[in-house]
Amino acid sequence: MSSRTLPLLFINLGGEMLYILDQRLRAQNIPADKAKKVSTIPGWIEADRKRVMNDIITTMFNKKFLEELFKPQELYSKKALRTVFDRLAHASIMRLNQASMDKLYDLMTMAFKYQVLLCPRPKDILLVSFNHMDAIKDFVKDTPSILSQVDETYRQLIEMYTLLSSGEFQLIRQTLLIFFQDMHIRVSIFLKDKVQNSNGRFVLPTSGPVPHGTQVPGLIRMFSCTGEEFTRLKFNNGGNYTTALREGSFDIFGDRVTKLGTNMYSVSRPVETHMSGTSKNSAQHTKVSAAPNPLAKEELNLLARLMGGLEVQKPGNADTGFRISLFATDEEEEEALISRPDELSCGVINIQATKDQQANAELAKIMGEFTESGDQSPSVSNKGDDLLAMMDGL
Prior knowledge:
The protein is mainly α.
């Protein structure tokens, strides 16, 4: 697995999250009486939309946060990464309940998975990332302080990834596909475009431009031992391929050529963020293994360092916040919350630490440090308590 995958995964998922939230914030219908209660300034809804987007992007591109993010490291587990985006989505006055957050995360992951699958060549994943960055930059174009944070991230991406070899990008792509391999959640915008089957698997096209620097398949050339071509054979490639016109730009400003990673919720497409079906039929949700994870301690420590860089300011008055829903009706949202899979719940288990070996063994097993030697260190419970306390304070 590649140790350089995490920044690309985070930036692309974060970009998809911002697309969805921006679309839902624009479409949110807040009654007039509530608007009067919150503010008497005309156009407060648009102002709050910008505030939400600015707060999330500021947190997303926090300097300390990015310093930890760009360090070479393995990907976090699905649960740990989901926790990061839970905190990120609530870094402003906006609030999502668990059902809406589940739906938001599903839409984010399936959109980026589709983009990775469609990349003509592994290096184009960087172009997809730049498309997300270009859109994020447009969100904060009127806020110079946040814009400078985004520009700094551009610089880090260019510095880290533009010089990587094709083999290293292939390893990054394989790492991303391993991360997404068990996710088959149906999304209506993909179902309507007939790029996703009813079982949640994507339909890959057999047409379009081939990767830059390659030729359209359909010709076999044979060479002699001296390097001279002596015969050609043509075959049916089974598709309708064309030659790539040009390569996308890897500079801060430039034509990315590919449309992968652009906002599919824009006005040029149907304004839709609904997934097909409710979570009641969601056997597609990724199952979290009940077996102890030997890397759990490392993941928790990495998460603790990463989350420690977030400087999230909670609103002083809870009444100033507003709730956003990714469902068409309140009834649909309540039904999704009731049928929410148990493995997605984030309840806290409190265990009284004693000298009893059975209790210590159970605690060590939960923290993923149940070793064959049976060594249970008291520091296990301390680290767990410190992490929970730190996350509660964010």
